[in-house]
Specification:
7-stranded mixed sheet; alpha/beta; 3-stranded antiparallel sheet; about 260 residues; 7 helices
Length: about 260
């Protein structure tokens, strides 16, 4: 309890006594990894949906103030993208990249996966990455710094208990017992990733973005007649919740005392 109070007091002092960071620089010292975990549609044939989302989420993050040198991308088919030159999607490589990037960018962490999923985890290449293992990866690399984890996959709500924490925001594409939608051969993005990208333009911070994505997915599924609803999940830790507004997106004003 004493450690918890001391940690919050230090965070509050930093936020309230120091000048609020400029919006475009709020994430300049954050580490980020963005992973496309598969290349196959739900029917087994190839799709570009996951790699399209991976590439464009990374571009959006740079627009929000993340530095390109602190952002690593991963793909199951890295040879098909000579422009962004992603690494091969493999759990050990992803962890090593997150650890290395977090060591030189200590301000915070963002981890984004887009792939297929099942109740045991998210597909990464030929492996299923379990919630417990991802939780250990994020904990070892990012510790107690502010951390945002986004999982775009069916059944991705299974990750919330393993990843939730006082310093973390966890946003998933579906409840632990629900599928998400938009992984077909002709889809440009999965529904959730599409909503993340479109909602980022009007959001003021990651908390607002998470809520906007939830509303966007619900509206899209109603419009398309997709049932049962995926019900994206959002968890924001008690320490991070009051701090998120200070990480305002470009064009949004951080709070002032």
């Amino acid at each position: 309890m004493i450690r918890h109070v001391a940690r919050w007091a230090a965070l509050a002092a930093t936020l309230l006594l120091a000048p609020a960071p400029a919006a475009a620089q709020s994430f300049a010292d954050w580490a980020a990894v963005v992973v496309a975990g598969d290349f196959r549609a739900h029917g087994g044939r190839p799709t570009e949906a996951f790699d399209n989302a991976r590439r464009d989420v990374a571009t959006t993050l740079v627009g929000l103030g993340f530095r390109p040198e602190n952002l690593r991308q991963f793909s199951v088919k890295p040879q098909n993208d000579l422009i962004t030159a992603p690494g091969l999607s493999e759990p050990n490589a992803i962890y090593e990249a997150l650890e290395e990037t977090a060591a030189r960018a200590p301000g915070g962490c963002l981890v984004y996966f887009t792939s297929h999923g099942d109740p045991s985890g998210v597909l990464v290449g030929e492996d299923v990455l379990a919630p417990r293992i991802l939780g250990q990866m994020v904990g070892a690399a990012c510790g107690e710094r502010p951390t945002v984890v986004v999982i775009s996959a069916c059944f991705s709500g299974v990750f919330v208990p393993a990843l939730a924490g006082p310093n973390r925001m966890v946003l998933t594409a579906a409840r632990k017992d629900r599928s998400s939608f938009g992984c077909g051969e002709a889809d440009r993005y999965p529904y959730f990733d599409d909503c993340f990208l479109s909602s980022a333009k009007g959001a003021r911070d990651f908390g607002g973005l998470g809520r906007a994505v939830q509303a966007c997915v619900a509206a899209r599924e109603i419009e398309e007649g997709m049932k049962p609803p995926s019900q994206p999940q959002l968890s924001i830790g008690a320490d991070l919740l009051p701090a998120l507004p200070f990480y305002a997106f470009p064009g949004a004003q951080p709070p002032r005392e």
